[in-house]
Predict the structure.
Amino acid sequence: MAGKYEHLVVRKPINVNELPDHDFSHVIPYPVLMGKELVKEANAWALYLFIKEISQEMIDLAVQMDRATPHKHDFDEMYLMIGDEKAITFGIELGDEYYEVSTPGAVYIPKGTPHAIRPVGGTPGLSGGLIPVCLNGEYITLPVE
C-alpha cells in the first residue's frame, strides 16, 4: 500500500535530451531529479551532471563544445558546483560581468538576470559536477534583449 506522501518521492530521474539555450544537451542526456513532470506540486526543478573520474578528453570536449546562450528566467535559479576542490572550473556570465568559480561553489541568479554558464577547465582524475536548481518547477528560458 502506497503511503500518503508516496507521490512526492522520486526514485528514478527522467532524461532530457534537449535543454533550451544549452548546446551540450544534444551530446549527453541530462537526468532531471525534480520538476513538475515528476511531482506535479513541485515548485523546484533540478538536474544533475556528475563525473566520477574526469579525463583530459572530457575536459577538452566540454570546453570546446559546451556553450550556453545568455538567457534569463522569470524565476530565481542557482547552480551548485559539487565535487573535489578545483575538479571543474566554470565560467559564469551574470549580466555584463564574468566570474570563474571552481568546485565546490555556487552561484545564485535572481529572476530576470541575464546569465550563461559553461565549463572552462578541469583537473583530470578528480570528481565533480553541477546541479542547476530552478525555483519554478520547470525549465523555461527567456531571451535576453
